[in-house]
Amino acid sequence: MTAVDARPDSPATLRFPQGFRWGTATAAYQIEGAATEDGRTPSIWDTFSRTPGKVRNGDTGDIAADHYHRVREDVALMRELGVTDYRFSVAWPRVQPTGRGPALQKGLDFYRRLCDELREAGIRPVATLYHWDLPQELEDAGGWPRRETAARFAEYAGIVADGLGDRVATWTTLNEPWCAAFLGYGNGVHAPGRTDDADALRAAHHLNLAHGWAVGALREALPAGTEVSLTLNLHVVRALTESAEDRDAARRIDAVANRIFLDPVFRGRLPEDLVRDTSGVTDWDFVRDGDLAAIAAPIDSLGLNYYSPTVVAAGSSESPSPWAGAERHVRFLPAPGPRTAMDWPVDADGLYELLTRLRDELPGVPLVITENGAAYDDYADPSGQVRDPERVAYLHGHLAAVRRAVEDGADVRGYFLWSLLDNFEWAFGYSKRFGIVHVDFASQRRTLKDSARWYADVIARGGLPS
C-alpha cells in the first residue's frame, strides 16, 4: 500500500494506520459524457435515461461532467487534494460495444491515458469493471436474468485486464450488484427498469456468477500479486423492537440484501432461509452444479459502500419493491436523525456496526470503504466559494467511525470518498450533488468545495484534525 505521512506540525486527534489508502471514487456513466464518441454504443443507462419519465428533468449522461475530455484537469485536482488512490469504472460499451467480440482499442486507449495521468501524479489506479452500464445489446438478449450475460462479463473482464493490466493496481469486478439486480429488475427505479421479483433473483445469482468467473479471468490475465476485489453495498438492518416478529423482519431483509452475496462469495452456499423465504417467487432452478464453487473464488479484499441504515418492523409494504417478496412481511420505517439532500439519515454508527460485523464474520478478509459520502444542496456563493459544512460534519463523523472500528480490530485498509465530482446521480439526474468538487454543468467549471480542502488536510495529517 502507498504510505501516507502525517504532517509533523499538525497533530491529529485520530490517526489512521501507516499505509492507509486515501481515495476518491467516480463511475463512468456519471461523469464521462462522450456517449457516442469513438465507437461507444448505448448502455442500459443511455436507454433508460432517454425514456420519458424515468430520470428527473429528463436528464441524461450524454455530457455529464465531460470527464472524457477533461481527464488531465480532473487528475490535477486529485493531485492537489493529495489522494493516494482513485477508483474509477470502465464503461463496458466503450470497450466492447456489443458486449461480445474483440476490444475497441479507442476505448481502451482512453483508460490507458487516464491510468498514465494518475501514475504520473503518484496516484494509484483502482478499476471497477462494472458500475451498471450493461451494453444495451446484452439487455436486449435478456440481460442479467440470462446466464449468458455472466459468460460475456467474464470475457470482457479478460479483455480489460489484457489492456490495462500493466497499469491498474486493484481490480474490482462489480459495484453494488444488489442495486443492479433489485433496483434494475425488481422495482425498476434503475436501468433497465424491469419489475419482476423472479428476474431480480436470477439477476443476483448471475451477477454473483459473473463475479466468480471474472475473478478467474483476471487471475489468468494479470501479474501475480495484483489485488482482486468486489464491492457490495451491504445494508445495516435494524429491527424496530426486540420482538420476535420485528427481528424476523430484519432477518428477511438481511438475507435478500446482504447474505445473498456474502454467503455464496465467502462460503460457497446460498442462505437456506433466503431460499425458503423466496420459494413463492422462484425454485432457484437457475443455480447449476459448480456455480457456487465458481462464485467462491478467493478474492484479496472486500469493498464496502455505506450511506445510511435501514429500520424495519413486521408488517407489509407496497409493491413493487426491491425486496423480492419480503415486502409482504416487512414494514420500512424512517431512521431518526438529520437527513441529507437524498433524505437519507445521517448515522455514522451504522458504518461502525457494519465494519465490526464483518470483522467477526469474515476474519482475515481485508476491508476497504469504497464509497461513503453525502449529497447536500451546494451552490457557489457570490465570492465563488462553495461552503458545505454539513458534508464536512458527515465525513468527519464517518471517518471517526472507521477509526473506531480499526481500533476495535477491523482490518480496514482504505477510504474512498464519494464522490470526486458532482455528477449524474442516476434517476435523480443532476438534481443531487455528492461531489467535493462543484461542477457548473453549463460551463463545466470545477470549484473545490470546503469539504475538498478539509479532506486534503485529513490526508496530509494522516488522520482527523482536532
TrEMBL record:
Cross-referenced PROSITE patterns: GLYCOSYL_HYDROL_F1_1, GLYCOSYL_HYDROL_F1_2
Return one GO MF term. beta-glucosidase activity
Q: Which UniProt keywords apply?
A: Carbohydrate metabolism, Cellulose degradation, Glycosidase, Hydrolase, Polysaccharide degradation
User: What is the enzyme's main class?
Assistant: hydrolase
One Pfam entry name: Glyco_hydro_1
Active-site residues from the entry: E371 (nucleophile)
- Cytoplasm is among the record's keywords: no
InterPro entries according to UniProt: GH, GH_1_N_CS, Glyco_hydro_1, Glyco_hydro_1_AS, Glyco_hydro_1_beta-glucosidase
Protein's UniProt keywords contain Hydrolase: yes
Under which EC number(s) is this enzyme classified? 3.2.1.21
Reaction it catalyzes: Hydrolysis of terminal, non-reducing beta-D-glucosyl residues with release of beta-D-glucose
Q: Which family does it belong to?
A: Belongs to the glycosyl hydrolase 1 family.
Name the UniProt record assigns to this protein:
Beta-glucosidase
